[in-house]
Specification:
The protein is α+β, with helices and mostly antiparallel strands. Helices cover 68% and strands 10% of the residues. The protein has one domain. The chain has four helices and five strands; from the N terminus they run αββββααβα. The protein has a five-stranded antiparallel β-sheet.
Amino acid sequence: MGVKRSLQSGGTMLGFLANSFIVLSTASNYWIRYSGGHSGLWQECNKGVCSNIPCDNTLAVTGACIVLAAGCGIMGLVMGLRLLCSEGYSRGQTTCAVFLISGLLLLIALTVYTVKNAWKDDVFYSWSYFLGWLALPFCIIAGFCFLLADMIMQSTDAISGFPVCL
């Protein structure tokens, strides 16, 4: 297995991990915890009773960006798997761009949520929130893995026309 294939495999694995973390983070209700309960993007639970959170602009932006990030991540994962399975298909730059867009959307979502809850007293961020932040570097590194693999493939194609004397 060459360097190009290793980078593509690594990018695909990192993309899978990032998507798993994004989906788990989005679906769970443990973004913040406070005395007597916890809250997520969609529901708030107080003393064991959960209810939907009223629509708030910052939560709407966070929810929209994180769902779009998950969608871009899944699309990037499918593109990465397609790159691994077929030799003639070369969309490494597109796959890179999709993962980087996913990372950017995730960064926007997490930053907006952080700013919204930064000044609240006795509110602590919980594991769902941290899974979102953990997914961010995985998305970015996955994108760069595909970019490097594409650069290696392009440089190999460019050099192949030159006579080489060893």
